[in-house]
Structure formats: structure tokens, C-alpha cells
Amino acid sequence: MLANRLRQNPGRVRAIIYAVLVHAVVIGIAIIGFRWSVDSSSSEKVVQATAVTEPPPRKTEEPDKRAQEEETERQKAEAEIRRQADLMKKQEEELAQQRLMAERTKREAEEKVRQKRAADEERKQEAKRRQKAVEQTLQEQLAAEEKARQQAAFAARAATEIDKYRLLIRQRVSRSWNRPVGVAKGLKCVVSVRLTPTGEVLSANVVRSSGNGLFDRSVENAVYKAAPLPLPEDPALYENFREIEFLFNPE
């Protein structure tokens, strides 16, 4: 009958279940509180009791564990130090390598600049040498032209002087010549005369005869008699009068 009533009133069943659970929770809390108070009082008693007694000996496991932990920490620290040292060493090696590369690059750049400057200087010197060679060639050409001009002028002046003094020599010899008795007019000959720089006659010889020996000898004698013969004042012209030939024609 009770089961039928419960099935007919399910809300009442839930209320009963809730009530039972609430009572169970309250009882559980009371039990836990009682145990906590008991444990607390026991702990206080233990603390108060142990406060006057000597501490129990410490277990040897704790120092060993602490030593192991310290050793582990020390090893870790040493490993970190070694790692940092290796890292610093690697960084220093990289920096040293970078410095070497930078110095090598700098030296290569400086060498290129030096080579470029040397090449530029060599080109400048070569240009100067060529310019100097051109100027020297031009100067030589001008000097050669000037020399040729001077030689031409000298030759022209020398020819004029030679002709002038040849005429003077012939005139001097003609004034010193006397026609031999019995020698007909119209005779002429070519006489060769060797002279000193002062105009003295070293020799006088007829090289193309007039056909009359007396006439020829008279001309040679006239040459000696006319000495010293007139010569140009320029010593350079003496070579033209060292030995001369001229036509003697008293007419």
C-alpha cells in the first residue's frame, strides 16, 4: 500500500530523498568538524609536548638530497658558464674573421686604388713622354730647317763672297801682269793657285794652256807678284780658296 502511495505521489518521494540527503550532509559536516577539532587539539598537545623535549635526530636523506641538488645546480651553472664561454669564443672568432675580411677588403680596395693611381700616373708620364718626343721632334725639325736655312744663306753669301774675291784675285793678278814682248793679243789660260789663310801664294800653275808658253809663264809670275792675294774675312770661307782655279784673260 505504501509503495502504491509513493508511486501515486512522486513529489513526496523527491522531498523525502532531499531531506535524507540534507541530514546526511549535516551529519557528515558534524563528523568532519569533530575530527578536525580533535586533530587540532592533538596537534597542539603534540606541539606543546615536543617543545620541552629534545628534537628528534634529522634524517640523513635530506642532506644527501640537498647535496645532490646543490651538485646538480653547480653542474648546471658550470655547464651554463661553459656554454656562455663557448658562445663568447665563437662570437670572438666570428668578429676576428669579420675583422680579417674587412682588413682584406680594405687592403684590396687600397691596392686597387694604388694600381689605378699608378696606371693613371703611368698614362700621364707616357703622355708627357709623347708630348716631349713630339716637341723634341718639332724642335729638331725647326733646328734642321734653321740650319738648312742658315746653310743656304751661308752658301748664298759664300758664293757671293767667292765670286767677289775670285774677281778681286783676277784683277790683282791682271794688274801685276805685264805682256811679254812679241806675245799677241787674245791669249788666255786657266791657272790653279794654292793659297795660305793669309793669302800668300804656295803655288801657281797653268792647268789649261793658252798655247803660248811665254804667255803662260808670265801669268804664273804675275800670280806670285800679286801676293798676298785678297781673301774673305770669314775663316769659314778659306776652304773655298785653299786651291782655286780661274780664267786669266787680260783682254
Structure description:
This protein is mostly helical. It has a domain of 87 residues: Fusion Protein Consisting Of Minor Coat Protein, Glycine Rich Linker, Tola, And A His Tag, Chain: A, Domain 2, CATH 3.30.1150.10. It contains four helices and three strands. A three-stranded antiparallel beta sheet has the order 2-1-3, covered by helices on one side. It is rod-shaped and about 210 Å long. It starts with a helix and ends with a strand.
Class based on secondary structure composition and strand pairing: mainly alpha
Topology as a string of helices (H) and strands (E): HHHEEHE
Mean pLDDT rating = 80
Inertia-based shape: rod-shaped
Estimated radius of gyration = 75 Å
Count, helices: 4
Distance between the termini: 208 Å
Low-confidence stretches: 42-52
User: How many runs of DSSP E, i.e. beta strands?
Assistant: 3
Strand order of the largest sheet: 2-1-3
CATH architecture of the domain at 162-248: 2-Layer Sandwich
- CATH class of the domain at 162-248 reads Alpha Beta
List the main descriptive attributes of the protein structure presented here:
Fusion Protein Consisting Of Minor Coat Protein, Glycine Rich Linker, Tola, And A His Tag, Chain: A, Domain 2, mainly alpha, 3-stranded antiparallel sheet, 251 residues
